[in-house]
Specification:
Radius of gyration: 22 Å
Shape: globular
Strand content: 5-15%
Strand order of the largest sheet: 3-2-1-4-5-8-9
Distance between the termini: 23 Å
Largest sheet: 7 strands, parallel
Structural class: alpha/beta
Amino acid sequence: MKITAVAVGTRGDVNPLVDLGAEMMRRGHDFRILTQEGFRPLVEGKGVKFLHLDGDADHILKYLVTDYKTNVDFFVGLLRLKRENPAFMEQTMEALTGSDVCMYGTCSGFVRDAADKLGIPCIRYFYSPYDRTDLYSLYSLEHGTPAVAKSYDNITGGMPMLSNLLMGKWRRKNHIPKVKNFEHYTMQNGRKVLTFYPVSPIFMPKDPKWGSHIHVTGYWYHPEQDAEGYEMPADLAQFLSVGEKPVFVAFGKAESKMLAELQLRTLEALRESNIRAVVQAFQLPASEKVNTDRLYFIDQIPYSYIFPRVRGVVHHGGCTTNGIGIWAGCPALIIPLALDQWYYGRCVYELGIGPEPLYIRKKLCSKAEIKRALEELVSGKYDMRAKELSQIIRKENGISEAICAIEEYVQRVHDTAQDCTH
């Protein structure tokens, strides 16, 4: 079977597909990932075929995450990416040609347009709630109410409009009807489209109303493999071997004036609270990044390596980073920027594995607020619950469940096509 998966986003968007693809390759399938050039080493390092898609990963991060404040900002970001990369549909069509099935996510909806032209079955994957339910939502703080389900109107109404604005001209040129409603994405040739949420059901319990075509599989990752071969710097080993366990602060590569100030305030809060920390913060001035017996600064390190060696983590709340943290049994303080990060920040707090998230969408949190949250993070009140959830997540096998569903789905599509020809 030839599967082509498309990812537009950050490492957290690509990494789950890489681990899924590596396992599918071991099972004899041909799995390829179409994504930005910066992720070539990640993809090929696991033995998965890399296909080039124009686009700057740093621009994607800026337009769709750092600059994101409203739904309009998200549309503007996608429009800027389209204009910067005019060959993206040619590359997508070339990559999908000959595939038995294709996979796309939140920011790669254009794959459905290509699949409509080529007649290729689709699979959807999302890292945050996308299908209507009254259990939870990106856009509501409530649970289990009609208001929660109604909040999905943003998606069901906005997605067809967004598609027609961005891809309407391409569809007309290729003699494909315009997208009329959201059902276009959930149905294909009279069948329900296979849909994955590569997330633990702890964070996204499956709604019984969804049906068998939607799977909340558990994470698609092998964290222990990502840590293999990493050689810890001698001075980091020394730092970790003495004193109380530190926290790990992981702010990733998103950049803005606000985030630079956030990193400075977090550093000041760490110093004032006297909490030991390993800090990954790319916007801190070099003059601030001086190692002491309380603070150690680092650029690149596998999260699956460092998380099990610390007492808690501070990060923006992306799905994959959050999953690795829970796998490691780490309480978390989430300071979300956009999209799924808000959702997972709430989940961490509601599940009792971290303080209330510090939202910075409208106003940057103060140094005092960060200090209080850090002190709460290391108070010990979240440790036992984090370890309990770690044991549950370690028993999940999201990759295996996904592969079985993909094999069954493609076989069913193939059998239906054969029946239609006789």
